[in-house]
Design goal:
- This protein has 130 residues and is an all-alpha fold.
- Helices cover 48% and strands 0% of the residues.
- It has helices at residues 38-51, 68-71, 86-129.
Length: 130
């Protein structure tokens, strides 16, 4: 029932074993149930997105706060009911466009750098033949 609790306290790390900072959840997304925290909520939402194609609406019953074992909708993560507004979607689209632009710039810089390196190597090889 509360499988996400098993993941509590675990963190992802990179190849240098540095702990990767977890993402910040939107302010409107709040966990419910015993010992609810952002890490557990993130695990529950990620799992719900991964395992089901149904929309995520959260727990719609206010009684879930009193006794989650009885009033729990098991097809939804342990979070309060929430609504995604058009403004939320617009802000996310803007963030995605900004990140895509940065990625495009980084890829172009990499391509130009590789082209310059290749050109330098060709010049060095040509001058070495003489």
């Amino acid at each position: 029932l509360f499988w996400e609790k098993r993941l509590q306290g675990l963190s992802a790390s990179d190849v240098t074993e540095q702990i990767i900072k977890t993402m910040e959840l939107p302010k409107g997304l709040q966990g419910v149930g015993p010992g609810s925290n952002d890490e557990t909520l993130l695990s529950a939402v990620a799992s719900a997105l991964h395992t089901s194609s149904a929309p995520i609406t959260g727990q719609v019953s206010a009684a879930v706060e009193k006794n989650p074992a009885v009033w729990l909708n098991t097809s939804q993560p342990l979070c309060k009911a929430f609504v995604v507004t058009d403004e939320d979607i617009r802000k996310q689209e803007e963030r995605v466009q900004q990140v895509r632009k940065k990625l495009e710039e980084a890829l172009m810089a990499d391509i130009l750098s590789r082209a310059a390196d290749t050109e330098e190597m060709d010049i060095e090889m040509d001058s070495g033949d003489e």
